[in-house]
Structure formats: structure tokens, C-alpha cells
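Reopening this one. Same input as before:
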Amino acid sequence: MKNIKKFICLLMVTVLILFLSSGIFNATTATSSGELGGMHYIWWKFNKSSLKSLDFQITIYNNLSTNDGLYLQMYQGKINGIGFYFGLQTRVSKPGSGLTGKGVIFSRWQTKDLSNAKTASQGWSAKGDEGGPFISVRKSYNWTNHKYKIQIKLENSDGVGDWYGIYIQDINTGVTNYCGSLRFPYATDNEKGIADGGGTWTEIYYRKNSNLPLPTLHISIDKVNATSFDNKDYTPRTAFLTCSGNFQHINIQYDEANQIIHFYMGQDIEKKLTDKTITFTDQVMHDYVVIAPEYIANSVVLNNFLSFKRKLGFNPTVVTIESINKNNQGNDTAEKIRNFLKSRYKQWKIKYLLLIGEPYNSTSKTSRSTGGVIPMRYCYPNPEKHSKDYAIPTDYYYADLTGNWDSDKDEYFGEYKQDNVDFKNEIIVGRIPFSDLSTVSLILQKSMNYETRETESKKRILLAGGIENYEEKKM
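Same output, byte for byte:
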């Protein structure tokens, strides 16, 4: 009898070994070998809590398939003291349908009450208990190898709490999609809004075939911006980067010159970073600055133009006219632009400024400004004649950053011998005087084509100019 029991036990062990080696438990094997789970991690410090919006600009370099479940979590943190997270997935779960295709997800904890969720058109909500009670809004979205801006922001408040919505903009096409909103109950002042210290991370949560190599992934975090309740803009001051010890073929690379963080995964990737703290700074040199409306700043052609300038040895950046108007002091847009440049030209070592935008607007122009999207300053070289016939529009107002264009405070700029214009410019200013994207795209492309030409004509130039009210001219 004892021998029979020994034989049965031996037989069961043998069967168990064969069973495990057959691959039926691949999911468990994948987890233990590090093929499922979190991979890249960033923990951000803005040194500012109580934020009302948060947006990430990212670049996806390869079009990921939906065979595997990959998650790019843009930010996991707290809103009004309650945990939340949002991001992109290759296989978004839908009640009754299981894992669907690519999409956007925004979730919060501590409730299963779907009255706290608003779905977008063709979106859906979900609830569950995994990790604790949660609700979620989700939307199918076929993200690909494009640039994107993903944002959550405070939309409105009601008698119960604050509603935060999630949006995704395809920068390549300029199209923005609303993906749903969640409500967070009111909190005390010290917990109000989006808290500092949250994290960005990637996860592989499903493998269709764990015997295959890890899929190839390259994603970069290009910009991170936040806005406080007093409408001030913030960027991260530090970040802690770390790679999971469970994966070998992943890496994080920090491009310090452009302050861009790259995530890599793939069979040919060698892990070189484990833990690293980086410090962001505003002391980055930008010798070539572009000021443009937001829709042009986010366009493909302008991003291509900036890349082209980098290849020529410049370190360009683009600043939106919307952010300048919001964050700088001044009596009008022209003064706000000049004050922005005065605060940055030494720090960034600005040499060149390109203005992109229509300078004129007949309904909003004044005696001081041409009134357009990016206006020119009217100046009055003849101090005795202030009618519109003697107003001269100029962009030199943005080139001279040390002179006083209205010394006598009469709001007539550039008056001869009454104001102190400095004709030794600090920066060189150019302009594309159009605001429609198609015309701007054509001009930028022509500029790049000209720069790449290898002809003698590039060495010859003809300039025309004149000086109004110089010493020897009779007024």
C-alpha cells in the first residue's frame, strides 16, 4: 500500500512538471520573469500644489500594435485629495466587450457612483473594485506615431464638487478630442486641485504571446505644463527617473539640451539608467525664438522648421502669443511682447526673433498699435504731428530692448528728441505677416528650401531702407 502511495505521488509530481513546462501558465511565467508590469517611471516636482490644469506634450515614434496591452500613464496623483490617473492604452477595457483597441482613459478612486462621470460622444464609463472602488471614463482613440498634447483641466463646479475633463490634441493634424469628465468632491484649501509629486509611467499589462520578444517602443515626454488657480504657469523643477528592475530591455534617456525625456523598450535596448534625479532650468539658451498663435505653434510644419533650425546649429523655441498675453505685464499686446523679450533676451541669449501673425486689425488698432494677432508698434518720429497719417508701424520696437520708446509718457512712441529709442538693436527681428496656417506653411517651406540651396545667389543681398526725421532733414 505504501509503495502504491509513493507511486501516485511521484506520478502527480511528474504530471505537474510536464503541465508547467507546457506553457499553459505563460501569464504567470511572464509576470515572474518581468514581462508584465511597470517599466519606466518619472516622479515630478513642480514645487507648487493646488494646480487646476496639467498637460503633457509627447511624441510617439512608432505605431504600436494592439497585440499587447501597453499603457502610457501620463500622471498618477491626487485631485482634491483623491487618487486619479489618466493616459493612453493600446487595449482599453470596455464593459461587455473586454479589451478593445487603442484609447484614452481617465479614472479616480473612492467611489463606484457613475453619477460622478460624464462620458464623451462615443465614449463610455466603467466602475470596479480592482485596487479599491473606482470609476472611469474612456474613449476609443486610434493614437499613432504622431505628436500629442494630453490635458486634464478644471471645467466647472457644482453643489457636489469639481469637474475635471480630459482632452487629447493630435498636434500633427490640429484636431482636439474631448474624452470625458470626472467629479471630485470639494476639499480643504491645502488639498484643493491637482497635487504636486505625481508620476508618469509605462506598463505592459497583457501579452498575447509572452514567448515573443518585447514590442518596440519609443515615446518622449517633450513638455509638461501646469496652471495654478491664480492663472500662473508652472513647469516641473525636478524629476526622479527610474527603470524597473524586472525588465532588461528598457531604458530612459534624458536629452538635457532640450529637456526631453525618452522612454525606450525593445529587444535591442540596453538598460543604462536605473535611478537618476534631474533638475530642469530656465537657463537654457534659445538663440532663435518664434512667437506665434497656439495653433501655428503646434503645427507640423513649424515643428519641422524648428528641427531644421536645430540641424543648422540653432537652439530654437516657440512661445505662444496666448501665453505671453496671459503671463506678462503691459498696457497692450505689443508692450507685453516687448516685456517678455526684455525678461528673456539675456537669460536665453536670444539673437533672432521670428514673429508669425497678422499685424493689422482695423477694429482693434489704436494710436499705439496696429491691433493684429501680433501687432506692430506705431511710432511718431515727428513729435508735432500725431494724426494717423503720421503714424509709422514698426517691429523695431521688439529689436531695441534697452531704449525708452515713450520717455515723456504721452503714449506717442518713438518721438524724435522726446523719446529715447536706442538704434543699436539687441536682437534681429523678422516676421511672417500672416495668420492662416496654409500661407505660413508655404513660407516656412520656401525658407527651408532656400536655406538648403547651394548657389552663389545666397551670397548676394539687396536691402532698401530709410530714416525718418534725421538731423539734416527739414521737418
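So the earlier flakiness isn't reproducible anymore. For the record, The CA atoms of residues 204 and 225 lie 26 Å apart.
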